[in-house]
Amino acid sequence: MTRVDAHLHVWRAAEGETPQVRTLVPPQNDVPIELARKTLAAHQIDRAVLVQPVFRGEDNHYVAQCARADPAGFAAVCVVDPRTAGAEQRLEFWARQGCRGLRLRPRIAEEAEIFGDPATFPLWETARRLKIVVNLLSSPEHSSAIDALADRFPEVPIVIDHMGHPQVAAGIRDADFQHLLALARHPRVFVKTSGFYHFSEQPFPFADCRDAIRAVYDHFGPQRLLWGSDFPHVLQTCGYANALRLPEQALDAWTAEEQRLVMGANALELYWPKG
Description:
By secondary structure, the protein is an alpha/beta fold.
C-alpha cells in the first residue's frame, strides 16, 4: 500500500518579522525538504503533497523546486492570489514549473472578499484546463460559495483543507457544518482529515472532533477523504505518529480498504494521475 501525506509544509526561513502570520512553527524557522524526507521515512510514508505556506504568498519557488527534483515523491500546491490581475497566467507559469495543485485561501480576510466572485472564474477555468487540483483553506461560512463553484466547475477537483475548520463546540447539527456536509453531493469535492489542533478545544486525541470526523466520513465516504499531517506544525502538538493514528481512532472500525483509500490511494489519484 502506498501511503501519502496529503498536507505537508516546507519552507526556507523568513527574513525579518511576519506580523500578519501566526503559526505554530514560526516562519523564521527553517523547515527544509531534508527534514520532511527524514520524517516521512521514519514513519514509512511514500509520498507527500507540499502545500505552499501562507507567509510566502505567491513565491512558490521552493515547493515547486522540491517537487520538480523528485516528482515521484512530491507534488506541489502553489498559491496564486486571485485579487491580482493575470492570476490565470501565473497559474499557468507555476503549472509549467511542476505544480499540480492551487491553493485558494478564503480564511484570509482579504482573499475572502473575492472568493467565488465571477472575476475569479478565468482562474478556475485555467485550473480545469490544466487539470489542477484546487485546495481550499476555508471556514464553515464559505460552504455556500464552494457549493456554487463546484456546480459551475464540476470537473475541477476541490479539496477542503482541515475539514473546513469546523466549530466543533457547536456540534454536528450546526447549520454551517451541515452546509459543509451537503457539499458531498458534488462527486469531485474531497475533504482532508488534518489539522485537528487548529479547531479542537481538547488535546490529543481530540475527542471533541470525533463526531465531526464520523459525520464527514458518513457523507463523503472513504473514497473522498484524504489524510494529511500538517507537518511541521503537527510536531508541536500531538506528534507525527499520533497524527497517523487519528482516523483509525475516530472511526473505531477501520478496514484495510478504507485505510488504503484515505491514507494514500485518494491522494495518489488526485496528485499523481495516470495518463
